[in-house]
Amino acid sequence: MTAITSLPRRAARFGGPTYDERNALVLIAPLATVLFAVAVFPILYSFYISLYGLKLTRPHRVPFVGLENYVTVLTDPQFWEAVGRTAAFSVMSVAAVAVIALLAALLLNEEFPGRRVLSAVLLVPWAIPYVANALMWKWIYDSNYGALNGLLYQLDFINSYMVWLGDADKTLALIANAFVWKEVPLAVILLLVGLKTIPADLYAAAKVDGANALQRFLHVTLPALKSSFALVIVYETMMAIRHFDLFFILTEGGPGDASHVVAWRIYVETFRNLNFGLGAAMSYILALATLALAYAVIRALAQRI
User: Fold this and answer.
1) What is the three-class DSSP state of 275?
2) What residue ranges define each of the domains in the chain, with the CATH number in brackets?
3) Quick one: which of 89, 175, 198, 279 has the fewest CB in 10 Å?
4) pLDDT tens digit sequence for 171-230
């Protein structure tokens, strides 16, 4: 028995993989192959494409342009306008998600009749697919028979039906509203998990020290939720920056260029203008900017945790 169990150790001593390690490699190989085919290879290939002037309008002439596509994107005023719209959409969306999710998590952390039913209902928006969510809000915002117009008209807030998505000043806020409705449930769950980890002794000690409800929230609850808040902010920021579904279904970048965010410009450049090289470069810029922002947020919050 001792000789048998010592075989893997002897193999490892001579530098080769043990029997268990070989078995593990064999079992992991199919999964690693699939991950490489569907994740790693497309990422590497898209970077390769970004270095070429690939346009499907002239598929037989694909010159190597190096970083020219990146320079073209970064010197395009329309790209920076799209960056500004993306930033505005992301800030208002993430801020709304964080505030609403915190209030909902604080409510669900209390004991009251119907709490379980409310928790189940809260998960409904999260369970709806993104495309179905966009189609639902397109119906709500419809200028002829939309539920929003009908509700406001019945309550005498408006005198006639309004073209909500036709107003350039309201478009981003209306799309952000649909995004927030979809994303709040997950943020609530993440914050609620953080609330459940706070020891009750901290609240009891704060009460003994004479702290009121607001002081307990500021000095006990918020500090304990820093890690959960960091996760919510990073995840929702990444979702908002790269979001595409709502812009495609609700407005298709309109009215005019009011909702031309970076994700929409990538779609237009790649699949409408058929300029795959420029679209790939723009995608890489967006991905790197998102990763850099996520890293900065994590570092900034980690120093305070």
Assistant:
1) strand
2) 68-302 (1.10.3720.10)
3) 198
4) 999 999 999 999 999 999 999 988 888 888 888 888 887 888 888 888 888 888 888 888
